[in-house]
Design a protein that fits this description.
5 helices, single chain, about 75% helix, elongated, Four Helix Bundle (Hemerythrin (Met), subunit A), mainly alpha
């Protein structure tokens, strides 16, 4: 593995979180159907998410908002060779913030804990984009 490939591993780690959330969402939905609390047809257009799976569903949607910009910047950093030990570390910190955000969201769901984690990840992502812009401007 070259150093530059190190930039791709945080993306793999985030994808693992998303796959895990899909598994959890499916488990919650199947459980709700099996226990008779909802009907399978309810998921046809998904107008009403059962309470059992609502937090997971909402958290999964979160993984396709801000993290989309994360994946883009990681790919561009990798393709332009603008990645370095700092950008790789920042990428890992961003992914850690997503895992922590998901944990809080799916457990206590307390905004006073969840919001600072989200804001921290947001600023890490901004730093990655600023580094990319600086690197592009200087090269």
């Amino acid at each position: 593995m070259t150093f530059s490939e190190a930039m791709l591993w945080p993306m793999v780690a985030h994808a693992a979180l998303v796959f895990g959330l899909y598994f959890l969402l499916s488990s919650k939905r199947v459980g709700a159907v099996r226990e008779g609390r909802v009907k399978a047809e309810q998921f046809k257009e998904n107008r009403e998410e059962p309470l059992e799976s609502l937090l997971v569903h909402n958290n999964l949607k979160n993984q396709f908002e801000l993290p989309v910009l994360f994946h883009v910047v990681c790919i561009v950093l990798y393709m332009t060779t603008a990645d370095n030990v700092v950008t790789v570390a920042l990428a890992w910190v961003f992914v850690l913030s997503r895992y922590l955000h998901s944990y809080v969201h799916l457990t206590s769901n307390r905004l006073r804990h969840r919001r600072p984690i989200w804001i921290f990840g947001y600023f890490i992502l901004v730093a990655l984009w600023v580094w990319l812009a600086v690197w592009l401007a200087l090269n």
